[in-house]
Write a structure and sequence with these properties.
Helix content is about 50%, strand content about 15%. β3 and β4 form a beta hairpin. It is an alpha+beta fold. α8 packs across α15 and α16 packs antiparallel against α17. The protein has 2 domains: about 230 residues, Hypothetical Protein Pfu-838710-001 (Beta Barrel), CATH 2.40.320.10; about 290 residues, CHAD domain, CATH 1.40.20. The protein has an 8-stranded antiparallel beta barrel, surrounded by 4 helices. InterPro entries: CHAD_dom, CHAD_dom_sf, CYTH-like_dom_sf, CYTH_domain, YgiF. This is CHAD domain-containing protein. One of its GO terms (molecular function) is metal ion binding.
Length: about 575
């Protein structure tokens, strides 16, 4: 069984309004009594299920007991779920799962893979080392809603309001976090109904998308409930990367399937870090900075992919996608540009903070790097940006693009072979575009453009040097995005050539980045010279560093130019 659903966090101040709206939607405007859900979650001490993005729970649902295995689906909206009726534990006995309930099908395969479970010798999994790590105590209120009546995207969704807490630890070490979530699950109809319903509730009540499961949050809470040494020894289960990629060579993969894989990878990266960032306290800037940095990287990757699609289309290699898919991806990239600019405002402050400290060490006035006027649409903090309507709307637009891009939502990473695409291409003479041709043609063109500009680096002013850096970074982002798809069968030589090229490009980008940071700092100090004479010392010092930094960047670019494009 596969769920198609989205989950949203509810601000504390909006909870009463959300309850009232659910009551208004209920039959006779009267909500049914909430369902009491009390669950215990199990994993191995070294978190093998969490690392596989799976969760195993035993839950009391009113008068019934249900054991559930949840595993990562192929998409933000999709999760594998196997529910099995079970019995309450004998009096005085602790809860324990019985893996035999999940025998057969994808659930058994997932447990065999993650736990090395061997049901032939260990039917119930007693030897797998499962222990209870955390628990949940919830009240669930449910209402069904028809969405998009009379349209192509008509559907019925269930709105489930979960209120309660996640609990971990015992006695004085027990910790808890509150839960205020709205899950929107497809009951029947088109999956776009889930997105449309989510967009409506986000805009009206300020909800934000959250792809972290209760299991993920419970695992993190359980880590904090143990001592520091034990916590440090636990493997990290948080990963922004998608669970699986098509196991095929580029020669047999269609360009549309490669596009879908790239979009999914961007979405997985972005939603993972939005969810992590939005769950932090507003004032915890130290914890927010590295997560915001990774979120910004995901936004850059999405924008690079959007530009790559537009560029290949302009040069005669259009993808066989619907107009809605193209427009939704463009809208998502526009939101990504705004959010990246906001995150860049905070990133610049952090990246330039070393300069006044260095000035002080040199005995010069330690004047902080002047801060430019904040963008008019700047959020209060990176955490607020992650919780913003715009951040969630970006994700909903990407999901819409994936839906409109074709394919079965519950198998969105299933490979579309070139021969399959040929069957649906427009006209009997239409030639399908392979992923290898699409990627190689576009990457060669981008590489050639960057190489031409790099050879004239001596003649580039600051703006054109920064433009080169942006284009080279986009090249790197697209290369990284599709790196798992390059066939391993090309041999060791081709693999090493790609690795050498990637390393040289990274070094060139590092050198260009250092030059750009100090160029920005110099411009900001110059802008305040008339108001603060102390800026003169900083300007003189930075100006003296400009020539050596340009030489370093030039050498790094020359080394990169010695590596031919390996694709």
């Amino acid at each position: 069984m596969q769920e198609i659903e989205l989950k949203f966090q509810i601000p504390a101040e909006a909870l009463e309004t959300v309850r009232a709206e659910l009551a208004r939607l209920a039959p006779d405007q009267a909500l049914p009594p909430p369902l009491i859900l009390q669950a215990a979650y199990f994993d191995t001490p070294d978190r093998r299920l969490a690392q596989a993005r799976s969760a195993l729970r035993v839950r009391r649902e009113g008068d019934e007991w249900v054991q559930t295995l949840k595993a990562a689906g192929s998409h933000t909206m999709v999760r594998v779920e196997d529910n099995r009726a079970t019995q309450p534990p004998p009096a005085g006995q602790p809860l324990s799962p019985r893996l035999s309930l999940h025998a057969g099908g994808p659930a058994e395969a997932a447990l065999r893979l993650s736990l090395a479970w061997q049901p032939e010798q260990d039917a119930d999994g007693a030897q797998c080392g499962l222990v209870q790590l955390y628990a949940t105590d919830m009240r669930r209120t449910r209402v069904q809603l028809a969405v998009g009546i009379g349209t192509l995207h008509e559907g019925v969704v269930e709105l489930a309001l979960d209120e309660g807490a996640i609990l971990a630890g015992t006695g004085a070490d027990q910790r808890s976090v509150p839960v205020r979530e709205l899950e929107i699950e497809l009951i029947s109809g088109h999956p776009q109904a889930v997105i449309d319903a989510g967009r409506d509730w986000v805009q009206r009540f300020g909800l934000w998308l959250d792809t972290q499961t209760k299991a993920h949050r419970g695992d993190r809470l359980a880590r904090w409930a143990v001592d520091g040494d034990a916590r440090a020894a636990l493997p990290e289960s948080f990963s922004p990367r998608p669970a699986r990629l098509p196991a095929t060579g580029l020669a047999s993969l269609s360009a549309e399937a490669a596009w879908r894989t790239g979009v999914e990878a961007c979405l997985a990266h972005i939603t993972a870090h939005i969810s992590e960032l939005a769950g932090l306290p507003e004032g915890d800037l130290a914890a927010a900075a590295p997560v915001a940095y990774q979120w910004r990287r995901g936004l850059r990757r999405l924008r690079a992919l959007g530009r790559f699609v537009a560029d290949t289309q302009a040069h005669g290699a259009p993808l066989n996608l619907s107009p809605v898919a193209h427009l939704s991806l463009q809208a998502a990239c526009a939101h990504a540009a705004v959010l990246a600019r906001q995150l860049g405002h905070w990133r610049d402050q952090d990246a330039l903070a070393w300069i006044p400290r260095k000035l002080q060490q040199l005995g010069l006035p330690a004047l902080p790097v002047p801060t430019p006027p904040a963008p008019a649409d700047l959020s209060a903090s990176p955490v607020a940006a992650a919780r913003s309507t715009q951040a969630t709307e970006l994700c909903l637009q990407v999901l819409t693009a994936l839906l409109a891009g074709g394919g079965d939502l519950t198998e969105v990473t299933e490979v579309t072979e070139v021969t399959d695409v040929a069957k649906v291409a427009q006209g009997p003479e239409a030639a399908p575009l392979s992923a290898h041709a699409w990627l190689s043609d576009g990457l060669r063109r981008w590489h050639a453009h960057c190489a031409r500009t790099a050879r004239r680096f001596d003649d580039l002013g600051p703006r054109r040097a920064h433009r080169l850096r942006r284009r080279a970074r986009q090249l790197r982002d697209v290369l990284d995005l599709f790196a798992p798809l390059w066939p391993q069968a090309e041999g060791k030589h081709a693999h090493e050539a790609r690795a050498r090229h990637a390393h040289a490009l990274a070094k060139a980008l590092d050198a260009l980045g250092a030059l750009q940071d100090e160029t920005v700092a110099l411009a900001r100090y110059r802008a305040v010279l008339a108001q603060d004479i102390r800026a003169q010392a900083a300007c003189t010092w930075l100006q003296g560093r400009c020539k050596p930094l340009r030489k370093q960047a030039q050498r790094a670019l020359r080394r990169w130019l010695t590596h031919s494009a390996p694709w």
